[in-house]
Design a protein that fits this description.
By secondary structure, the chain is mostly helical. The chain is built from 5 helices and no strands.
Length: 156
Amino acid sequence: MSEEKQQGNRAAPDGHVAKVHKRSHLFSRLANATSKFAGKPHAFLAAVLIVLLWALTGPLFGYSDTWQLVINTSTTIVTFLMVFLIQHTQNRDTLALQLKLAELIIVMKGAENRVATIEDMDEDELEELHEEYRQRAEQTLAHLRHRRGHAGKHGS
């Protein structure tokens, strides 16, 4: 596909790109709603009731392999799906928090704006910045201790 066509697809309000965006938005809404529901006491109670119901049916099915397979398969499927929904919600919440912090860093006088995009740094850059901030914190602590020492001598 030519570059012009790709750019045209990106810019077009309809077509494949719009469908993908619509699905993404639908998934986001589903993930957020599921995450909210799963975090409530009613969801936990429903899960406990399902497990109790399954356990109570054990004698009815003679504790068969199939009876055990039902709970194992069900919990595995639910867990598998929940991982993706929770990860999506966590990614969204993390991005929102990063944006809020970036806004505060950018508008704060004297702040280092490079910290606003710290999540985009690689491991080496993060380690280097961490060491820089650790040294600055030690210098600040030493300065405060020095000031307290002088204040104690002059205050008597």
